[in-house]
Amino acid sequence: MSAAPIHELHNSQNSDRGAQMKKKYLPNTRDARATMGYLVEECGEVLAAVGKTLRHGLTSCNPELPIEEQETNRDWILRELKDLEHAIKLVRVSLGPEDGPR
After folding, report:
1. Three-class SS string for 19-61?
2. How wide is the angle at C-alpha 63 spanned by C-alphas 72 and 58, nearest 5°?
3. What are the boundaries of each domain within the chain?
4. Cα dihedral value 16, 18, 24, 28, nearest 10
5. Using CA atoms, how far apart are residues 46 and 58, in angstroms rounded to an integer?
6. What pLDDT digit, counting tens, does each position of 31-49 carry?
7. Residues with Cβ < 8 Å from 59, sequence gap 6 or more?
8. What is the pLDDT of residues 48-95, one digit of tens each?
9. What are phi and psi of 72, to 5 degrees?
10. 68: closest CA among 30, 29, 17?
């Protein structure tokens, strides 16, 4: 069974805001080290979103963003979680089958 190419996994990611993550930010390889780096970055973005939300609340928005880019902290967390789920999927693909060689 062959795994889907990285770009196909990216294209299958849903986005409520209609703006999928830019391909230039995705690892362009199946290399486990590169995809794990991407995973760490996405974990950091989830931490940032949750940290700001704990301080400012779920319904708060970043006032420094242009009005058309503003979203509630709740929506920000959900968007970052979706990105994290995608990163997890890429790492799983790059590591190979769970019962594969170690």
Report:
1. CCCCHHHCCCCCCHHHHHHHHHHHHHHHHHHHHHHHHHCCCCE
2. 25
3. 30-95
4. 60
5. 14
6. 889 999 999 999 999 999 9
7. 72, 73, 74
8. 999 999 999 999 999 999 999 999 999 999 999 999 999 999 999 998
9. -70, 160
10. 17
